[in-house]
Design goal:
about 270 residues, mainly alpha, two-stranded antiparallel sheet, about 0% strand
Length: about 270
């Protein structure tokens, strides 16, 4: 059942990618491709089943780098599917579907020995859920920021490409960006609060650098939101702040896991 779920999710993600890429190549209207969204919904269902078998083991829960990457891509893609009913997010889906397929494959065939966490208290579980959900929202905001930068560049050079017609209007993209960042910042605040409350002995768990980088990201996102609401920051200024904040958050989340699970273990 687990193997079937893994490969079904991968096949459906790739099928979604192929359908959208074909329509885009043939310059057909893809924003309302019900078939592609249906494929994506089935892919997410299979991916969710795959995650059930991936994260739960006889020894406890898998919280390693590849398992968390698979969970985050599932959440990001799920958010895209929900938002696609109101916004034209074809290009975002086209980018995320193959990434989700790769993450599913990587998590199901993790390298080395994975040490499951045998005991996860309710407080730690809340911290993990809040952290991953915040990361998923802010990842989606970062992808949105990159598209916003690309669209601003096209408009600035007065050479908008045909692909731009598959994107929402500029004002809608900016509103969506700051909405994602606002909700992501709220969840990140809650994740940091639960971390301080329930994590014991940060030094012994090698979590000091992760906490410091997470706080740095939280400050940068907060400054960005203050600048947007008080100073009217938008466009490329918002994009630069978003990328800097996400870089700190990515180092906090994946950098620490990569160092602890791969680099230090090999040494």
């Amino acid at each position: 059942m687990a193997v079937f779920a893994h490969w079904t999710a991968i096949a459906l993600y790739l099928a979604t990618t192929l359908v959208l890429a074909t329509k885009l190549y043939r310059r057909r209207e893809v924003s309302d491709s019900a078939f592609a969204l249906l494929l994506l919904a089935f892919a997410l269902a299979a991916h969710g089943t795959s995650l059930y078998f991936t994260l739960r083991t006889d020894g406890g829960f898998r919280l390693d780098l590849l398992a968390m990457l698979s969970l985050i891509t599932w959440l990001v893609t799920l958010l895209l599917l929900l938002l696609a009913r109101r916004h034209k997010l074809t290009l975002l889906i086209l980018a995320m579907a193959p990434i989700s397929a790769l993450a599913t494959l990587a998590a199901a065939h993790a390298w080395g020995d994975v040490s499951p966490s045998q005991q996860v208290s309710p407080g730690i579980a809340a911290h993990i859920v809040l952290s991953i959900t915040a990361y998923a929202l802010l990842t989606l905001a970062t992808i949105q920021a990159l598209y916003l930068y690309w669209l601003n560049l096209q408009l600035h050079n007065h050479h908008p490409s045909g692909i731009s017609r598959y994107l929402p209007p500029l004002q809608t993209m900016e509103s969506l960006l700051f909405g994602l960042i606002t909700f992501g910042e709220i969840l990140l605040t809650a994740a940091l609060a639960t971390g301080f409350l329930f994590l014991q002995d940060l030094f012994a768990q090698h979590l000091v650098h992760k906490t410091a980088l997470s706080i740095l990201a939280w400050i940068l996102y907060g400054v960005l939101l203050w600048g947007h609401w008080q100073q009217g920051w938008r466009g490329n200024t918002a994009v630069r702040w978003t990328l800097c904040a996400f870089a700190a958050l990515m180092l906090a989340f994946f950098g620490s896991k990569l160092a602890l699970e791969v680099i230090l273990q090999r040494n």
